[in-house]
Specification:
four-stranded antiparallel sheet; 7 helices; 22% strand; ATP-binding; ATP-binding cassette domain-containing protein; ABC_transporter-like_ATP-bd; 33% helix; P-loop_NTPase; six-stranded mixed sheet
Length: 230
């Protein structure tokens, strides 16, 4: 019996992918444990691609399925709940200044799931510590340093044991010292059957042949081009 894909893009075309050709078709299948490294030098295109994978920007043609379900066929409340199984690190600023840091980190799970807030807070605290913070940050989000915001974004993405991780240039080409802890967290997620996409604009990451990707692709004008991993 074939294993249900975590993410399956089948000849997907979308006008939302500004910067790709009108006839560009995207094909990508990620099974449990798969890890795609994508050379995505256009940050806006990378964001739009992540939106497509998350069902936030439906394709004009073709299909995008997550855990065997086509985003376009799902009722809104079901799709919202399903997004609770996706963890995402955004390339741009993605924090709400009117909310405290702790709520910002827990917000996707608070919005998309019905998990007990106390349990969620405890898990968020553990993740923050695992990524090098002293605990779940208190106070305003703008009180955190740039590096601590990156760590907080990792905690937010991994909260709730997501089945798909969408990482948009997660280290911003700056925080190379955080690569081992992030790869370790991804490895643990893959061990439990999750899949991950790491989009990068960093030549050092892309050129690292030891990077543990199962697929290497390039996202650009012609869509997604698959490259050899070995």
């Amino acid at each position: 019996m074939a294993t249900t894909a975590i993410l399956d893009l089948n000849n997907a075309r979308s006008r939302h992918l500004v910067g790709t050709a009108a006839d560009a078709k995207l094909n990508l299948r990620l099974g449990p444990g798969d890890f795609a490294l994508i050379d995505a030098r256009d940050a806006d295109l990378g964001r739009d691609f992540a939106d497509l994978c998350s069902g936030l920007a439906p394709p004009d043609n073709g299909a995008v399925e997550f855990l065997g379900r086509d985003w376009t066929s799902l009722p809104l409340d079901y799709a919202q709940a399903l997004r609770g199984r996706i963890g995402r690190v955004f390339a741009g600023r993605s924090w709400l200044d009117f909310l405290d840091a702790a709520t910002n980190i827990m917000l996707p799970q608070l919005h998309h799931t019905r998990r007990d807030p106390a349990t969620l807070r405890a898990e968020a605290t553990d993740l923050c510590r695992a990524f090098g913070l002293p605990g779940l940050p208190m106070g305003r989000i703008d009180m955190l340093s740039a590096g601590d915001l990156v760590r907080a974004s990792f905690a937010r993405a991994f909260l709730g044991e997501p089945m798909l991780l969408l990482l948009e240039s997660p280290l911003q080409g700056v925080y190379a010292d955080m690569i081992p802890m992030l790869l370790n967290a991804i490895a643990r997620a893959r061990d439990r059957g999750a899949a991950a996409i790491w989009m990068t604009r960093n030549k050092a990451v892309w050129s690292d042949r030891s990077f543990p990707a199962t697929q290497r692709l390039r996202l650009g004008y012609h869509g997604l081009a698959s490259l050899r991993t070995g």
